[in-house]
Design a protein that fits this description.
The protein is mainly alpha-helical. The chain contains seven helices and two strands, in the order ββααααααα. The chain starts with 5 loop residues before the first strand and ends with a helix.
Length: 116
């Protein structure tokens, strides 16, 4: 996907897709928090945080030589499509692992399926 629109907040410049993704994450978290139990919103926010960390740090896997030569690139770049896939896989595994340990009701299963 080619991004043609960027938003600037002082010295921070974000692509429109990143802004849309952050807004979506927040709206889904808010709906989970208001409609269902607190543990689902916590599980979702943990998974989103894990996704973002893995996505940003996946540059170590996709372009290790550049990161070793210029470590500051971790702040400016991400792992791209491969990073998104790694982030989704790790976040899904985290949700699956935590779901095993939680006592779930039918309504909570619907909430988890809707959010993920």
């Amino acid at each position: 996907m080619i991004n043609t629109e960027w938003y600037s907040i002082r010295t921070l410049t974000l692509p429109a897709t990143a802004v849309a993704l952050l807004i979506t994450f927040f709206i889904v978290w808010l709906i989970l928090r208001l409609q269902f139990s607190k543990k689902w919103s916590e599980l979702y926010s943990d998974a989103i945080f894990t996704f973002i960390i893995v996505w940003k740090l996946s540059l170590l896997v996709t372009d290790f030589k550049t990161v070793v030569n210029n470590p500051i690139t971790l702040l400016y770049f991400n792992g791209g499509t491969m990073g998104v896939l790694l982030g989704v896989i790790v976040a899904s595994l985290q949700i699956w692992r935590k779901r095993q340990s939680l006592q779930l009701e039918e309504q909570e299963m619907i909430a988890g399926s809707w959010a993920t």
